[in-house]
């Protein structure tokens, strides 16, 4: 006899005081597609739960992601257990495979985040029914649900049940559970599974090693991480850039930055699959910056140049911000001059500089740098321009903001400023009775098709009409986005 919580998975008989499965009330023709309706009909008609999968196998209609989603939405209302059975059955369908999105969708719809016990009940029901033999593929579908929920405890339990059901886990299965354990920080359990793979005649692959090395590095167990990096060649896995980058990140966080630079040089020397890329260098730069060693991080630019790797915008933005934060303004300007030779425009570099100054609280310096950019013919990007303009408005420097936006607009090819800033300026100009400037800005907004936004709209239109700009007031008031 099956426990009640489990037997209900295979029997559709409902208690007298509970409404029948809501699928009975579904009008398939109007609430879902015909294909989903057919599958739902078979779910409803399978009075004997043990024959549900066989009944679904007789459906000839096409099974696709849209159909699966519709069926799950209906099942989620009243019977997530039935939804899980359908999801697993469809995941084993010969011509269909669940996407990552569909796994996430099923996890959310069927409420596994709130009630993971549903999955446990399902597996126990399969194991206790004599006429059902769980398959390795079925367990893989379930483990992918565990992966979506980042549920290491459930994943480990599923792996245990898989072995108890005489389903031999393969390397892919072990990798899913090992990854879950590493993400949880349970490195010892993950190491046990890795050793278990060896004893089961299963060899760890590149994914296993990268996940374990990353997990060990993230908790500061650098000796073991280095040992795995050296030992993985024995299983035919050659360390690559991803492997070394994971190790490098751990060394930067828990070891010495000098050792990180040594490892970086080793990667450059080994070349091939191990050679560092711009992401690798950026990782080291970020860690130097976080530890307040922005000057030392400058040496990495020389190292990159010698190795033939060009810096990207992320690395340069990180380096400029670190130098500004540490008060090394001269060096920040030197960096801009150096990287301009690598193809990163002065416009972008100085935009980074303005934003960095602003974010560390050097607001006046940021404004001065921004004005020098415009005076020198440089074009700040949209984010930088909007940041400075918004700050001026917050400081009630409305007239300064107007003159600055005029200079920005005259800069050819400038990226757009956030549209709400125009409305804020318009409201401020009208409020302070700068009517000539307000009319000019209104003409600019009409020309660019920028809509007035917020509670200021009525007051601005009345102000324009009051100074004899009736046509302009009508034009700006009629703009709709």
TrEMBL record:
Recorded superkingdom: Eukaryota
Gene3D superfamilies, sorted: Tetratricopeptide repeat domain
Record carries keyword Repeat: yes
Keywords from the UniProt entry: Repeat
Residues annotated as transmembrane: none
Pfam families in alphabetical order: PPR, PPR_1, PPR_2
Record keyword Repeat present: yes
PPR repeat start and end residues: 170-204, 205-239, 240-274, 277-311, 312-346, 418-452
Family to which the UniProt record says this protein belongs: Belongs to the PPR family. P subfamily.
NCBIfam families in the cross-refs: PPR
Protein name according to UniProt: Pentatricopeptide repeat-containing protein
Species, as recorded: Nicotiana attenuata
